[in-house]
Amino acid sequence: MTKQLDEQEIHETYYEKIVETLKQEPYANHLGIQLTALGKGTASAELQIQDHMLNSHGTVHGAVIFALADYVFAAASNSYGKVSVGLSTNVNFMAPGQKGAMLTASASEMKKTRRVAWYSITVESEGNLLATMEATVYRKDQYFVPIDQP
What we know:
By secondary structure, the protein is α+β, with helices and mostly antiparallel strands. The chain has a single domain, classed as Roll (Thiol Ester Dehydrase, Chain A), CATH 3.10.129.10. It contains four helices and six strands, in the order αααββαββββ. The protein has a six-stranded antiparallel beta sheet. A hairpin with a 2-residue loop joins β1 and β2 (42-48). The protein is elongated and about 50 Å long. Keywords: Hydrolase.
């Protein structure tokens, strides 16, 4: 009988490879998003707002806020080295982000099963809550780190 993989051990054993993979996300790199922390089911990142990220009102475009929230959601849900893909998100925009501001986002796993996991995400700027996101992910069988799979 094949031993079942322990996701906690996978996270610890392959941590560097998982972080390296997540830091190579093309769209996040294009925007300038920086992964600042990765834990088991958690992630944090930051983004320095540039002029081209503003909307016609001179505040941070909602798509930029969403992209930052979505990135930490992806990082947290893939933190075990298992391929996880988004099923749904619900975003609440609460305050505008300002030109030149540093945005920070954090994701926390609320519950995880073999196939589905739920996350809570916040986006802040200078201690001000800009947005929250609730997100659900589908957890595939494949891993993106080179492990012996059962």
